Amino acid sequence: MESILLRARGRADSRTLAAYRSAGGWEGFRKALGTSRDELTKQVIDSELRGRGGAGFPTGRKWTFVPKDHPGPRYLICNADESEPGTFKDRELIEHDPHMVLEGIAIASYAIGANVAYIYIRGEFVRWAEILEAAIAEARGAGLLGRDALGSGFDLDIWVHRGAGAYICGEETALIESLEGKRGFPRLKPPFPAVVGVFGKPTVVNNVETLACLPHIVTRGAAWFAGIGRPRNTGPKLFCVSGHVRRPGVVELPLGVTFREIIEEHCGGIRDGRKLRAYFPGGSSAPIMTADQLDVRADFDACAEAGTMLGSGGVIVLDDSTDIVEAAANVAHFYAHESCGQCTPCREGADWAVDILDRIVAGHGRPGDPDTLLRICRFASQGMTICPLGDAFALPISSMVEKFRAEFDARIVKATPVPQKKLPVLPWAGPRPGFGSLEDERRCPSGLLTAGRSRWRPAPI
Amino acid sequence: MPKRIIDGRAVEVAPGTNLIEAARAAGVEVPYFCYHPHLSVVGQCRICMVEVEGQPRLAIACATPVAEGMVVKSETSERVKEARAAVMEFLLANHPLDCPVCDQAGECLLQDHSFSDGTDFTHMVETRRTFKGYERRLIGPHIIQNQNRCIHCSRCIRFTQEISETAALTYKSRGNRAFIDTFDGRPFDDPFSGCAADVCPVGALTVREFRFRKRAWRLRSTPSVCPGCSIGCNLFVDHHERVVYRFSPRENAAINATWLCDYGRFLAESLNEHAVRHPQRRTGSGFDRISWGEATSLLASRIAAAQKVGVVASANLSNEALYLARELFAGADIVVPVWPGEERRMKNAKREWLRSADAHPNAAGARRLGLATVDADGLAAFLARPFTTTVVLDPLAHPALTGEAALAALARPGLVAFGRTAHPLLERADLVLPVASLACDAGTFTSSTGAVQRFDAGFTPPGEARPLWWSLIALARERGTAPFADLDDPAGVFALLAGRVEGFAGLEWARLGESTEGTRREHQHVG
Question: In whole angstroms, how large is the CA radius of gyration of chain A?
């Protein structure tokens, strides 16, 4: 497949406006400004573009939820808070082609009628925030952004907002709260952000990769885009392959290729001649897949059918040297650390799961532990929490327990009880002077004291 | 009105009502922790799960508004029961379960829901999470925090953000390590800090003044009205064995929702002060204890013999006592001293601030009865007049009564004083008559917004102290003044008052203070 999203990768000057323009860049925005908003939205609906952030919601339909009669202002937010373990595609896009992302933001902002767009970027991405800021300044200087963009009468300001290091702020409502300067707590839905979003105004939150697809849809047409991949799962997708493969990295492939093709053809297969044991298809929050499920197609619907999810496309490959129990503990640690602490099942459940898994790893598992883990996962997912973080920790762990139950049981069979901590000796514990000990007895001049009992007898007559 | 069915019971409620309130109207109790009727809905405790027909997932009742024809299953659904039991297990996984030494026991939502929705078993075998150094922490002048007991419902935080508007409390840290702290580590000296402990469904925040003084289930709650200012917040006097232990808020949407200010709340202790327990007559330098019969006839004869009688009434007295005083001292001059005091404020259920103009619970009632109100200067002028007998119905009517000038003006023969607490004025009186505290009195106050509110008597007064209405009716009987001599309780006085005074027309004693909206909650202050 031709490189679409990653076409600039490897070029030294790829971040410059000139390089982007020479490849036909910013023409999509110019073309979009010439069409009506409804037409543009229809074009995106026809392209069947689905959100690349994880949920796979149709992007065009999301835009239609913004109330048409709202007096505004409306906002567009580019979600660049890429924090899912095993996901690094947005960073790649920003690194090599920041203008493609900006053009996507400009097109989406025009489509929903937003004059202000925010890029909420993960706090750790210091360099990439700087890249974006430089690109924005360049685009502004060239009249592509700012007041009266491209002489069309459409105003657009893009601001880069850096997060403060919370995974949960990738969830769109927590992101909005964080953007408003509050604690990153996901909001109750409804109302959805499209109706009540940032600062109480209609807001659309789209992922970096989703937005990067837009210039191509506009310039090359919805039909061209819909022709890539499979029906309802169209377009190119960035897969971030990490773990025990020979050539880890970001690969761009049409949706619907099999995971076997991704791992074996594009990433050189498993490293050191080992065998695949399992893989996460879409970041560590997707239910794990076993080696015999390698022929599942990497698209939204096929993954859902196989009982997992494509998520953000972060493929984490585990070879047969991997201890699944330890991997589960690792995953649990991440989500327990990142739980915001609002909902009871996620707050209490994630930490509880960590305690159990740590205990099993330490060799002190108990026979009921896998079932307790499954119970925790069952009641922390499927709508038991405000946001999907409950599912994010529950689904991978329950799938690991279910699919690799034997590994858990083998550990538990060999387990020993938790060593009892030696309690500190309290200053008043032990033999008290004058009473009780043999030594005291020997010392007692009257001879009336024995260990624990008085040996006093009435004096003989 | 959308019709809906909860656990097989049909109910009609206003559109927009959430499922918890709708279920309550249908007689079904949906458990909750983070929901509070007067705070915003966050939906984070997850115990209020219900099954809505046609929805694949369980819904949280607090954030689900009713819809026409909705069919909801709460206690009748196995899925709901299972989910609630799981949430209870999650909540108790790290809860210290120290109910025997916890002050909240008996009025704790966690305890209640553990019984109603939990199981008697836990899968938890790990070491419990604790917050070292946060087990017994004085976070403000009145509030003690035990973070180990906290269930992270965020009610206290939302209270300080939305009601008291100080944003004094906040979450710190994240996830299971999140804890409640004061913002910026400053002391929690909110003027409504007691309410943060009220809304706390568990024993994480407790009131220092009440801690370890009485188990909650021993307390008897008598509906009453706050004597602190003219706003007239509804409250319960919580008492046991004739000792008042605390005030707790009583719900009234128009006045105080479920809040009380710290000033009013901590007046509770003052009701236990009873320095005067018997009628006393001055004999030379000391006082002699006399019977009520003697005292009443003495008072009647004093008034009959006096050329000019002056009566200092009080805006702290009930409408009934004020009315009896007005009628029985018809020939005398009566004034009601009114003191503006410090401004108090209270937020009602519509989140509007009510502000108090004067420091008495019944200044509006005195005005409505047509009694002359005076300020400090007016009071001084009144006391300077040459009365041969001066009757002071309440030495606490005005702070000026403790002043040198007032005491000097009253240092003449013929001072009759009713009193409860030690007061310099009583030492100068010829006749001292004991009165009962608010906790032992029944009557009505008229709030600054014009609401006539009833308070009930919780227990009989100590010694021979009697409510003022009782003493005044005794005086009427002594003098044979009809129709007051035939009355025998404040209800009768109020009936007479309602028939004769325009401002009280149409009111009925039995129906005063009747809840106009919704059903009464068992623990009103908890929500």
Answer: 30
| Segment B449-458 mean pLDDT | 92
Q: Would you call A344 and B47 a contact, using CB atoms and an 8 Å cutoff? A: yes
pLDDT tops 70 at residue A434: no
Contacts with A347 from chain B: Cβ below 8 Å: 90, 152, 175-176, 178
Contact (CB<8Å) B171/A348: no
d(C-alpha B310, C-alpha B385), whole Å: 9
Which residues are within 8 A (CB) of A163 and not within 5 positions of it... i.e. 6 or more apart? A81, A120, A121, A122, A123, A169, A175, A178
**Which amino acid makes up residue B386?**
P
Side-chain half-sphere CA neighbours of A97 within 13 A: 28
Mean pLDDT, range B328-348, rounded to an integer: 92
Q: Which one-letter amino acid corresponds to residue A358?
A: D
E-assigned strand segments in A373-424: none
Minimum-distance CB partner of A345 among B46, B154, B175: B46
Question: Is B291 touching A (CB cutoff 8 A)?
Answer: no
In tens, the pLDDT along B362-419 reads 999 999 999 999 999 999 999 999 999 999 999 999 999 999 999 999 888 889 999 9
**B window 68-97, beta carbon within 8 A of A:** 83, 86-87, 90-91, 93-94
Output the six-digit token pair for B519: 């059903």
Q: Is B176's CB within 8 Å of A372's CB?
A: no
User: What pLDDT was estimated at residue B525?
Assistant: 58
pLDDT at B231 over 50: yes
Q: Which of B39, B89, B148 to mutate to test binding with chain A, by most A CBs within 10 Å of its CB?
A: B89
Rounded to 5, what percent of chain A is helix, strand, coil? Answer: 45, 15, 45
Structure tokens at B237: 């006097």
pLDDT of residue B519: 42
Q: What average pLDDT does the segment A352-373 reach?
A: 94
Q: What is the pLDDT of residues A43-87, one digit of tens each?
A: 999 999 999 998 899 999 999 999 989 998 999 999 999 999 999
* Closest Cα in chain A, distance from residue B127 (Å): 8
Q: Mean pLDDT, to the nearest integer, of B176-190?
A: 91
Say yes or no: A391 contacts chain B, CB-CB below 8 A. no
Q: Which residues in chain A are contacts of B79 at CB distance < 8 A?
A: none
Please report, for chain B, how many H helices and E strands are present, in that order. Answer: 14, 25
Q: Give the Cα separation of B435 and B395 in Å (integer).
A: 11
List Cβ neighbours of B43 (8 Å cut-off, separation of 6 or more): A188, A386, B34, B35, B60, B62, B63
Between CA A395 and CA A410 the distance in angstroms is 22
Tell me if chain A has a CB within 8 Å of the CB of B152. Answer: yes
